[in-house]
Amino acid sequence: MSNGSKVIHSDNYRWQGVEKKEYKTDTQNFRDIHRVSLLGDEIRELNTQTRYFEIQPGGYSSLERHRHPHSVVIIRGSGTVVLGNEMVSIKSHDVVYIAPETIHQFHADREEELGFICIVDRYRDRPVIPDDATIQKEITSLEVLNKIKK
Question: Among the options 36, 118, 120, 144, which is catalytic?
């Protein structure tokens, strides 16, 4: 398309010409997860980045927090999300809003892949991994404390 617009076709949660990447390389507090940057890395006109994350059964994202908000749309499977002191079941087509400074973590704990689209600001702060003192101060639910992975 001459104006820069485009369509990225998908087949079974894989997008043509888009590379599957490691989730993160600077920490090890996650398991069996990868990401795909769909829009925003190469399209400078966008103020957001649209990414797809997929967690294999038994896997989880990093336990983290940051100053920026983001939105998540579950498009595959089901699982659990930790949002601060709460634990919520999630499934396909659910939408999750993560407010700034909220400790959060996604879990594929339903014996199936958990896939979600995550939209964030292009220019944002880096995630912070909460230390034990922060977790102890902010998370009082024993159910959540037993669920999170550090």
Answer: 118
**pTM for this structure?**
0.93
Residue 15 lies in a domain: no
Q: Is 118 a catalytic residue?
A: yes
| Residue 89 falls inside a structural domain | yes
CATH number of the domain that residue 65 is part of: 2.60.120.10
pLDDT by residue (tens digit) across 85-120?
999 999 999 999 999 999 999 999 999 999 999 999
Cα 60 to Cα 45: distance, rounded to the nearest angstrom = 32
Residues 6+ away with beta carbon under 8 Å from 66: 100, 101, 124, 125, 126, 127, 128
